[in-house]
Write a structure and sequence with these properties.
Elements: H1 11-21, E1 26-29, H2 38-48, E2 54-57, E3 67-69, H3 75-82, H4 89-97, E4 104-105, E5 114-117, E6 139-140, E7 144-148, E8 155-159, E9 162-166, E10 169-172, H5 179-189, E11 194-200, H6 204-210, H7 220-228, E12 233-236, E13 243-245, E14 250-261, E15 267-268, E16 274-275, E17 281-290, E18 296-297, H8 305-326, E19 330-334, E20 343-348, H9 355-366, E21 372-377, H10 385-395, H11 398-401, E22 402-409, E23 422-430, H12 445-457
Parallel strand pairs: 1-2, 3-18, 4-12, 20-21, 21-23
Antiparallel strand pairs: 2-3, 5-17, 6-9, 7-8, 7-11, 9-10, 10-17, 11-14, 12-13, 14-17, 15-16, 19-20, 22-23
């Protein structure tokens, strides 16, 4: 099944098509706004009112280009991207991600409309936003970094925050300690710089693929093809020949420099804290490419729903399918906004004592970011913090229903982790145990239907 809106891989055409199909889910803001904090403040104010529309800002002071942001703030919108309902989000993402299609190289693309190299590069011309008062500088938040194995061409994609260090260099952090960080370490050991390309502005399914949790040998560009139902159309960058989406808005090409450290951060991270924990990495830029009519595709920073969902939906999908394959009792997995990436709720139909503990141990062992897992029965809505806390209040006994394990590697951005980055992990079993007595109150369907009709008339 082809995903919705995937006939074109152009972000501009996607925004136009989505706006026509779902005008109530797109908010165009023509008011003049500042590139410093205003957009983050608007997103936060909308979230406080329970709103999560895709934002299209056409008059950002001094930026010179429109801004599209908050793309991934809505799980319903992500489901529409994948052509499914929210309830099938995990299974659909997992299925499409496991149907990879290799990129298709094309002769030309809109990102090649303007190309500058060498001394003509000036990163001051790149439109950037300052997201929080505590940020050190304007930041790239949507930058997808692509590196390729020079022998095989196999690629890796990942997100990394970046700020301008000089007119021809970025200061960035490879804080995830993921595949890119390992490739950079290997290059540094050889005394070599690592060629890379950074993409700003791609189709949202390309962006979602960049957050996929896949083995090092899997190229996320292939995953993007699977999600879109068609090969990702790519062109090669001028100097290093790295394959990037042909319709990107901006592409920066250069090298991550071996053994060089520069100041970077603080920046408002997914934890809700301003973080100056960084690998202090320097990336020299040799080439700037952009299309004729670029827009700035921004990812709302901090612990916004967009920032969390973008990496959390692939993580949830992986954990959900892995758990269900190993533990058929599992019915759903959810990472709540309130827990950033550190909390997870899992629901199950427990068939034997201790099964919830097995499931929680699996989660805590498989996901390196998790600190707390709460297991509940399948009558609890795990997308509702209040319902989970109710189960914790009425089905959980601290003396017998929790366990703690210590000394695990955790997220380097967790401000509570140890000086060497380790963390403890907590499991809370809020399922009905053997001998539990208690019948949950309920309302019949006819009574609820009548109530809806009455309230609708008020």
């Amino acid at each position: 099944m082809r995903a919705v809106f995937s006939d074109s891989q152009d972000l501009h055409e996607f925004v136009e098509a989505y706006s026509e199909a779902h005008p109530d889910d797109v908010l165009t803001i023509a008011d003049r706004v500042s590139p410093v904090e205003d957009i983050s403040a608007i997103i936060e104010e909308l979230a406080a009112r329970g709103r999560d529309e895709l934002l299209h800002l056409t008059n950002v002071d001094g930026l010179g280009v429109p801004v599209v942001t908050n793309m991934f703030a809505s799980r319903r919108r992500i489901g529409r991207l994948l052509g499914c309902e929210v309830e099938q989000l995990h299974s659909t993402f997992d299925r499409l991600a496991h149907q990879p299609l290799k990129p298709r190289e094309v002769a030309s693309g809109s990102v090649l409309s303007h190309v500058v190299e060498g001394d003509d590069v000036d990163l001051a011309s790149l439109p950037l936003l300052t997201h929080f008062a505590s940020d050190r500088a304007p930041y790239v938040t949507s930058g997808v970094v692509i590196v390729e194995d020079p022998a095989t061409g196999a690629g890796n994609m990942s997100y990394h925050r970046a700020m301008m260090h000089s007119s021809t260099s970025l200061a960035t952090s490879l804080h995830s300690r993921g595949h890119l960080w390992r490739r950079q370490e290997e290059a540094t050991e050889r005394g070599e710089n690592l060629p890379f390309a950074m993409v700003l502005g791609g189709h949202p399914l390309f962006m979602l693929a960049a957050a996929a949790r896949v083995p090092a040998e899997v190229d996320e560009r292939d995953v993007a093809g699977g999600l879109m139902g068609a090969p990702l159309e790519v062109v090669r960058t001028p100097r290093y020949g790295i394959r990037v989406p042909a319709s990107s808005d901006y592409v920066l090409e250069g090298v991550i420099e071996a053994g060089v450290e520069v100041e970077e951060g603080p920046f408002g991270e997914f934890t809700g804290y301003s973080s100056d924990r960084s690998t202090h990495t320097l990336a020299g830029i040799d080439t700037m490419m952009r299309r004729e009519d670029p827009i700035l595709c921004d990812v709302a920073a901090g612990n916004s729903a967009e920032h969390l969902n973008l990496s959390r939906v692939p993580r949830e999908s992986e954990m959900s399918e892995k758990l269900k394959a190993r533990f058929p009792a599992v019915t759903a997995v959810h990472y709540p906004n309130s827990g950033t990436h550190f909390h997870c709720y899992v629901s199950l139909r427990q068939r034997r004592p201790g099964e919830a503990r097995q499931v929680m141990l699996g989660l805590l062992g498989w996901d390196p970011y998790l600190k707390t897992v709460i297991a509940v029965d399948d009558d609890v809505d795990i997308t509702d913090d209040q319902d989970v806390l109710w189960a914790l209040a009425t089905r959980f006994q601290p003396a017998q229903d929790l366990f703690v394990v210590d000394g695990f590697p955790g997220s380097p951005l967790d401000p509570s982790s140890s000086s060497v980055g380790t963390t403890s992990r907590l499991a809370l079993d809020a399922t009905r145990g053997p001998g539990f007595e208690g019948t949950r109150i309920a309302l019949s369907a006819p009574a609820l239907d009548r109530a809806r009709e009455i309230v609708a008339r008020l």
